[in-house]
Amino acid sequence: MPKIELLDAATIDKIAAGEVVESPANVAKEMMENAIDSGANTVTVEIKDGGIGFIRVTDNGCGIPAAEVRTAFLRHATSKIRSINDLTTILSLGFRGEALSSIAAVSKVEIITRTRDSVTGVRYLIEGAQEKSFEEIGAPYGTTIIMRQLFYNTPARAKFLKSALAEGNKVTAFVEQLALSRPDIAFKYIVNGQVKLQTYGSGSLKEAAFHIYGRDIAGKLIPIDKEKDFVRITGFLGTPEVSRGNKGFENYFVNGRYVKSKLISAAIEEGYAGNLMQHRYPFVILSLEIDREKVDVNVHPAKLELRFSRQEEIYAEIRDAVKEAIAEYRVMPKLEPAKEKPEKREAEKPETPVNHIPPVRPENAVPETQAKNNVPDTPVQKEKSSSGAFLRQASEAPVIKVAEEKAPYHTSRKDERPSVPELVAERQMTIFDNEKAAPAKKKTYRIIGQVFKTYVLVEDGDKLLLIDQHAAHEKVMYEQFMKDLAERTIQTQQLFPAVVINLSLKEYEQISANLDDFAALGFEIEPFGARTFRITGIPVNLFGTDVKELFTELVDGGEFRRDTKLLASRIATASCKAAVKGNMRLSGLELNALIDELMSLDDPYHCPHGRPTYVTMSKTDLEKKFKRV
Question: What torsion, rounded to 10 degrees, do the Cα atoms 362, 366, 372, 376 define?
Fold first, then answer.
């Protein structure tokens, strides 16, 4: 039987480091939290190679006395608690005393520090938990700590690190979260020598949100300040328009600490219930003040998770506070109708609308020559369809004109009035015009018509097909896009005017690193200032969608990759938004084009999200319904 022995100090340190240091983001987090706990009001963070090769954090805090520098790198050494009782009233972000020891065990660390009452500072170098040098040095007050070559002595853990871009995005996310939690501290964030983020410590949370997320989001925030029995909630809720496809934009801080909590997240989402579409998540920046005796922060080594002693009450209060704030935002002021002068009202008669329906001559319409002197020509308007194409009337198409009723009408009942016929156009462009569309297979079907302005009835042999026009168009657009993507024949639709979009720093970096991939997908994008892009073209198949919403859908969550299933699902979502909707009347030409393209597909049975595009009923089924068999 193996003998039981104590592990050596180096092995213990590396095992302990595994609980605290998993990535460069963990290192940056611990170093920044120490800077804040030191009383600093200015913090500068610099990373290179995604933080794997280099992280430097500089602060103007209290510094570390020279006699205590070595002790700071020992396990469980801390200045923030003295006994177990202090855990219930802890005010600092860090307190375990494992951060510096764990970081030094798996990297090369250099620290330069000076207190305000000292004339000189100290430079201490430690590599793999082994001291290399300790010397007196001239330095400004405060602390600068540098980490180099993370996991240089533990290659087994280094191989689990992701790309420099991915690891850098994690550091960026934490810097943003800390800047939001402490708007009273000025943060500067430098990536590979370039300043990517800077806040000024004014104390304004909205100003910090502006610097991090840009003008578009900062302008759509709902203030919240609610005090309940157990919780006080302050901060901002995003309007439903800035909701996202993942929970990455749910920022909440408990007693000043950024945390992840299923309870808090679920309470916020329930508070938004009825205001967001399915599979959409809110954008929030919330500060929650909870009685410290009701919160246990010592659950997770990185202190990201919490345990609550009054879970049900806290959940209900967060949910209700969010719901109340949104309800207050939804209350619209009552607007009095504008008073118009009688003569203006008479002069400003609305034009008769033109309805785009199949060209059918009204029964009481008269020939054009007979109506010429009675009815002025009505200009044919342009109407935009849901797919974004314009239903344009051909300039040479004749327009049926309707004569005014001159003679008094006669009815058998007082309330009856003769129906006024609608103006119609003889020809219009179909929203499914697409030169690249694959030729339809030999037709074995006959289109009967549209019902409920949503479903298309089609006879195919001895079967009746009931087709969902939205799901069908979505499938056609998706398959066409994926075919063009595979064949590298995607065409670009120019946008005029161009669309300018503000993004978070993480999204901006993600797109900047993949501009060639976006170009291959048919996007024309160019940088347009800090965290801003100018979009001048999008794939022609997706024309007509909300460009900003489409763009955020494509980059929302995770890294952008052109050939992944993730991208395919996002294109499916974009196709859904661009497709014709239910409760929309389509012309005969449009119905024919849609069904022909759907039937030409190898798999016309389901939309990209898995919903059926049509259901069938056989002739025998119908005969059974009518008791014919």
Answer: -30
Residues 13 and 129 occupy one common structural domain = yes
Rounded to 5°, angle at Cα 451 from 450 and 456: 45
Q: What distances in angstroms separate CA 111 from CA 104, 114, 151, one per listed residue? A: 11, 10, 18
Q: How many CB atoms lie within 10 A of CB 441?
A: 11
Give me the helices (H) in 399-455, please: none
Cα 206 to chain centroid, rounded: 19
- Is the distance from CB of 305 to CB of 312 less than 8 angstroms? no
CA–CA distance, 354 with 391 (Å, rounded to integer)? 12
The DSSP-derived string for 358-386 is: -----TT---HHHHTTTSPPPPPPPEE-T
| CATH number of the domain within which 124 lies | 3.30.565.10
Confidence bin at 202 (pLDDT 50/70/90): very high
Rounded to 5°, angle at Cα 451 from 446 and 456:
40
- The CA-based diameter of the chain, rounded to the nearest angstrom, is 114
The answer to whether residue 338 sits within a structural domain is no
Q: Residue 594 — φ and ψ, nearest 5°? A: -65, -50
Residue 332 CB partners (closer than 8 Å, separation 6+): none
In this structure, of 249-253, 340-344, 411-415, the range with the lowest mean pLDDT score is 411-415
- Torsions phi, psi for 172 (to 5 deg): -55, -45
Distance CA 166, CA 149 (A): 17
The per-residue pLDDT for range 310-334, each reduced to its tens digit, is 788 889 999 999 999 998 886 544 4
Two tokens at 167?
Answer: 């690891």
> Looking at the domain assignment, is residue 622 inside a domain?
no
Which tokens in the block code for residue 351?
A: 């034009």
Query: Do 183 and 89 sit in the same domain of this protein?
Result: yes
